Amino acid sequence: MISMSCMSLLYVDKSPGWKLAWEDKLFRKRVYIGLASLILIFACLPFFFVYVQQRPGTLLNDWILNAIPVHNVSPLIFICIWATFLLMIVRSFQQPAFFITMLYAYSLLCIFRFITMFLVPLEAPTGLIPLVDPLSNMMYGKTFITKDLFFSGHTSILFLMCLCFPGKKDKYFSFVTATLVGILVLVQHVHYSIDVLMAPFFSFLAFIITKKMDTFGGE
To answer: What's this model's pTM, rounded to 2 decimal places?
Structure first.
């Protein structure tokens, strides 16, 4: 029944279509709140990144990163990222339950990054080759950011998609792209190895908290 809590729909593989889901007032409320929260987060991001970039941080002696020759692999990174994002957009149009799961889980993931970057100031790795992507860089503002390090946003968002996708093929695809991006950002020395290794943990944490949110509503 569509009258059940919208959050109890989040993990049903065969979710109702958007027309049916939108008839649920609680579902609409969750969407509005989630979108408003994400817009607020995006509005704060450029200011926070400027703060992160200007403050001094710690330069880590990362023996894993030091053993990896640096190469510019930006095209491969963004092929993986945007291919997975396109799949996410398609599934969002098809499955409202998936859309709202990603909406809340991604918002939590962004909040976790705010907290961890604030608590763990780091200097950019030695030999870093900046990632240049017109779409992603719009969130950074006018300042070029290299210290948004702990934890890896590119890696974590792809792992989060892997957790949220209901279909096995989508999960496999996003797991492969997430793993590739995790490796490639190290090849480009964009992140320390700890940034990449911890990314799946925070993705899982955001997913689990979102999953628990379905207990807030009632039938």
So the answer is: 0.86
